[in-house]
Amino acid sequence: MTGHEGSSVPPGRPLLRKLDQRLNDLIAALYPDERKRPGYAKLAAEIRQTTGGAISGTYLWELATGKKRNVTLEQLDVLAEFFGVPPEYFLNEEVADRVNAQLKLATALRDARVRNLALRADGLSTESLDALLAMVSEARKLQQLSPVVDENVVDAKPGNDER
Amino acid sequence: MTGHEGSSVPPGRPLLRKLDQRLNDLIAALYPDERKRPGYAKLAAEIRQTTGGAISGTYLWELATGKKRNVTLEQLDVLAEFFGVPPEYFLNEEVADRVNAQLKLATALRDARVRNLALRADGLSTESLDALLAMVSEARKLQQLSPVVDENVVDAKPGNDER
DNA sequence: GGCACCTATCAGCCAGTGTTGACAGGCAAG
DNA sequence: CTTGCCTGTCAACACTGGCTGATAGGTGCC
Known about the structure:
Order of helices and strands of chain A: HHHHHHH
Number of helices of chain A: 7
Largest interface: A-B, 23 and 24 residues
Oligomer: homodimer
Structural class of chain A: mainly alpha
Radius of gyration of chain A: 17 Å
Largest sheet of chain A: none
CATH architecture of the largest domain in chain A: Orthogonal Bundle
């Protein structure tokens, strides 16, 4: 656009340079255990089926490593929706801090489902939360997800509780 | 997924569909008098010299008429900076409403300078406001702009375009 | 040893964002 | 009426956002 350099970020414009850090924070919050964390490809696939929006693993990596950062609003919306944060999270410092506190709290919880719900709960009404949960459940049933994902995200321990 | 119809937006994704309206609101707020309002080209030039970011008049029109709406963060930042609103204005309904109230109030004022300052004042500390004002004044002096605005915002010498 | 399946990273491609340039219509000055 | 400026609008172009595919390295299972 401006023909500005694209590698080193000139401090001239207060652009969204912290997007990479924000993204990494979110990922770390959702998957506190490094071993259990899926790669960017798997994570992107998860985002795709959860939000319906398209995103590639490679691009996720590019964003997380700061190689690309001038995303479009559509992508921003998809990311925000998946991680359960308001889109302003990527723009406003205060909002980011507030949400980050919530994230730390959620990380403390052991149960993956509760953690996930807690993340998505921020700023939503009870009705919205309920509707979301129902939709996700429906989607899973519809896709006939096998008893995989033993300790991954959405499903918890294998052959155990589960409503 | 770019089935851009212009008017009817596929409700599949709660995208930023109101960007055109928001933009028009801002323009109308800044230039309440239709007669005195500069065209998109002039307005774009104004934005360019004020914020330093690049934007074309045609593109401004496309955004205002809803032909394009999936802007990048960089463009969003430039627009927000010029109009003196926080970037969340384009994302968050509540913020937009709150700021819109401020805009109406500011519109009531006759003096263009006060109106301008009022717009930019929202959410800023007194120090920031002061610094901004100083910078703008310096810029004006530097560009040898005519002795301040009469009722327009900035007066440009006819037939002269820099850069 | 080997193979199969991961992962992160890179190079190249396509689509759409954002550009420049030009056209038609309105309004004031000559 | 003609000339000139300014407006909104469009079409053709360029650049980069975002994707697909391939490569290199790691770990487990045979």
